[in-house]
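Subgroup meeting minutes
Present: P.N., E.W., G.H.
Scribe: E.W.

1. P.N. recapped why we're keeping a running log of single-chain structure predictions: easier to compare across weeks, and new members can see raw inputs and outputs side by side.
2. G.H. added today's entry (398 aa).
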Amino acid sequence: MESQPLPLTGITVVAVEQAVAAPFATRQLADLGARVIKVERIDGGDFARGYDTAAAGLASHFVWCNRGKESIALDLKDPRGLDVVRRLVRDADVFVQNLAQGAAARLGLDAATLCAAHPRLVAVDISGYGAGGPYADKRAYDMLVQCEAGLVSVTGTPEQPVKAGIPAADIAAAMYAFSGVLAALVRRGMTGRGGPVEVSMLESLAEWMGHPLHHAMHGGTAPARTGLAHAVIAPYDAYPTADGGRVLLSVQNDREWRRLAEQVLRRPELGTEPAYATNAARVVNRERTDKLVAKALGALDTDEALARLEGAGLACARLRDLHEVADHPQLTARERWREVGSPVGPLRALLPPITLPGGEAARMGDVPALGEHTEALLRAVGMTDGEIAALRRDGVAA
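Output recorded in log:
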């Protein structure tokens, strides 16, 4: 059977993007076969290039979000640089931007303006708080939006709220922008017309807050911060083991509790004792319940504890650090790791989680150097040697 092509083969995306939200969205498009042209500033490019040097000298955020793209460096404050972007957009299917609020409109690169000029274009505006309302012009960095969306209020310990360890607001906006592009392309296939797509970080993350938000709105109280424990289920927490590891255990119902009591705690009488027999009782007696579980698991090495829990048919996991995740046996067994090229040589990268059996493998292209494709793209939009030389001489292109 002939292999299916990647679903976005033949789609061209132009992105004036920075940081995480837009770059992560367009990287998903690149992985699925789209050609993504990344427009960067001439003075350092996407500022995420400078976040750190952890990825063999490159910034870890940039490596994560920008593989498989072509980089062109332009000064959009110069009319000649802006003209190059407009020429690129003429032949594009998708345009994505996440500039500061109002900046794209001043350049004529907002979705409404571009879609009016190019009816088949799908144009995406990603913002922090949306185009209108009292927060429209506020700076919107990931941690700030995590706070505004309430994620920080339900994350952490009873004593200390904490932000998520990943840029959750950026990722939420990126994934809604990605799915919004796909939906708009499907609609264009039916109607022949593209159109604007609007995504805000606040609205994206607020949607992800659905469970605690509905709990608070309709139940009257927000779920308590409980660290790794669960607010309304017990036992459901991380427990130390004899060799210094930690094992996560989740007992979902009273039948599982009885199996835990018999096969792991080795105290079958606890399965029916009134203080522990029901989840409601175990939550009321959470401290005593946790002490029982901690004592039993604390006498076992991590592997032994996991084997005993799995043997009892109970949900459990190992608390892994990031080095352990990089060597995770499941990711290795499923051959999820690849190497991608970069200016500093090959780097490990995970296959994207969307798998399309029977089709071509995801296109995991190289991480581009700043302006690596400037000359080729300038030639592609019809510029002569003299025009290109003038743009470089005047600092409009790099």
